[in-house]
User: What shape does this take?
Amino acid sequence: MFEYFPGNYVWNLGVVATLNSGGLIDEVDRACRPIRELGAQGADVGTKEFMASWAAVAEDLATQAAADEAAGHLRTAGQKYLRATNYLAQAERMQSARQPDRNVFYRRCLELQQKAFDLIDPATVRVEIPFEGTTLPAYFTKAASHAPVIILFNGLDSTKEHMYSSGFSQELAARGVSTLMVDCPGSGEALRLQGLTSRVESEDWATACVDYLLTRDDVVAEKIGLVGWSLGGYYAPRAAAFEKRLALCVAWGANHDWGAVQKRRLEREGENPVPHYWDHVLWVWGESDVDTFITKAAAVNLDGVVEKITVPFLIAHGENDRQIPLEYAHRSYEQAVNAPRRDLRIFTKEEGGAEHIGLDHFAHVQTYIADWITDVFQ
Assistant: This one.
């Protein structure tokens, strides 16, 4: 994996995720160069400066985009708004849950994302999914007037803005598949602006998503699939085990026993996805102390669950995933005995895509998953 900040896995993962989600090397370098020395002091030190430096580049882009827009150069403006959104989303993801101005940056991210949609991607719109007296914010990319659709769940720290900038929905649209990118409880806008925290029973929000999609006249009802990356590699299989209207499931990162991963992190085994890790997970799960959280997290486990999956099931995992052990991919595959089709794809260091959810070679992993989905739907 490309390492701009030697020895700082968490910051490097953010850089790689940005570059492989449409970021430009020159702009990323301008954001990182002023904080390079801080990166040598560990993941938690300097995250405020990380935000400030990346936001400065994003705002410079937004200023340029506004001038382009005023001049009628709408495609150029939209591309700049899109990259600015990418930079803000990745930098905001790195902030402490206790950072008081965090939502200021996130609201700006939402604003810039909408500008990009308006100018260069009218096929993608913001939607609200009814859920337990409130809504789950989401983006819907429409592929055709009547198309299969993939529900995409994010993980512990990503957002629907990162899901969009990854380019996965565009890959699916090119194959005739629409995408619903959802900020689940515990993630993105649902957590930041609505206070919705995560839960073991991810089928609750999967059911809400299917109910919503079935109200649309541009969705093929019998071809609704579910993909989840990172912690979504738990959420998606769990949901598919119990929400039987789904037609397929993909675990993009085999998060088979996330509770055990938390115990490993207490013992400083494996890598964390974000700085200020324990503050972040307590925020996501709505807990006030680590001991209570660890007890609760033990139930975030797919033993006895994946056996209930009765639709085609893909597990995609990197052999050098430093967050989620490779053995979990094999465990999910071995237990999914009732899936009519089950596939295990391990991405190697030699080919790329070997890091967590393939962030080191995102396009390679994405296109494989998009092709698998297309094959199953056909």
Q: What stands out?
A: The CA atoms of residues 93 and 157 lie 6 Å apart. Residues 1-121 form a domain with the de novo design (two linked rop proteins) fold (CATH 1.20.1440). The longest helix spans residues 47-70. The radius of gyration is 19 Å.
